[in-house]
Design brief:
Layout: H1 14-28, H2 35-45
């Protein structure tokens, strides 16, 4: 996986790879959140931060 404008290629760890694979499987099952849902949850959890 290449990141934006890097000279060296980033190698995902086994833990990162597994997390991505799990997320992709959940997405295929329809277990997803909208941007609005994530933002609302973040605002509730981190009420001391200002979200734009």
């Amino acid at each position: 996986m290449k990141l934006l404008n890097t000279q060296t290629e980033y190698k995902l760890s086994l833990k990162e790879r597994k997390a991505i694979e799990e997320a992709m499987e959940e997405s295929k099952k329809g277990n997803i959140l909208t941007h609005e849902q994530v933002l609302a949850e973040a605002k509730q959890k981190y009420s001391n931060l200002k979200f734009e």
